[in-house]
Write a structure and sequence with these properties.
- It is built from three helices and eleven strands; from the N terminus they run βββββββαβββαβα.
- With 153 residues, the protein is of the alpha+beta class.
- The protein has one domain.
- Strands 4, 5, 7, 8, 9, 10 and 11 form a seven-stranded mixed sheet that branches. Strands 1-6 form a two-stranded antiparallel ribbon. A two-stranded antiparallel sheet has the order 2-3.
- β2 and β3 form a beta hairpin.
């Protein structure tokens, strides 16, 4: 089953949340999303739909899916991250969030052995802290000058 994620804004409009599949591989074998943490957002390939568990695409053979054959591989979402960033121009607003998914596969033998897979979900909240750092620096200098004046006087 495929899912699509939306957020509802203050006008009650639905805004679609882009999905970044970290280990996506295109038809040429390239992995454009492999450096998703390096900030190369211009080269990312985003999607809208995602799945949590896939038992259908691992069925081998021409008509084996129709015949009800079981899958040799199960794909699942191992790590899911919801990244939310504050808008640097308007601190009361957020930029459209992004859902980052890292998929893994389990073979039929691993599934038969009843081994458990570790899954994780996390949410990240980010903001531009350049203004905060400069404000703290200015306040530190002002406090030092104030204390120097107190010591001298």
């Amino acid at each position: 089953m495929f899912f699509e994620m939306y957020i509802q804004d203050f006008n009650d409009d639905l805004i679609d949340v882009p999905v970044l599949v970290k280990n996506m591989q295109d038809k040429n074998g390239n992995k454009p999303n492999s450096d998703s943490s390096a900030g190369l957002e211009s080269s990312w390939r985003l999607t809208r739909r995602f799945f949590l568990l896939d038992t259908k695409s691992g069925v081998e053979g021409t008509d084996n899916f129709v015949k009800g054959e079981s899958s040799t591989v199960i794909r699942y979402a191992k790590e899911i991250t919801l990244r939310i960033r504050l808008d640097p121009n308007n601190p009361e607003m957020i930029l459209p969030p992004i859902l980052i998914i890292d998929y893994r596969e389990r073979s039929k033998t691993m599934i038969a052995s009843n081994s458990l897979a570790k899954l994780s979900f996390r949410s990240e909240y980010q903001m531009n802290s350049d203004k905060t750092v400069s404000t703290i620096g200015s306040l530190t200098i002002a406090c030092l000058v104030f204390f120097l004046l107190l010591v001298i006087v």
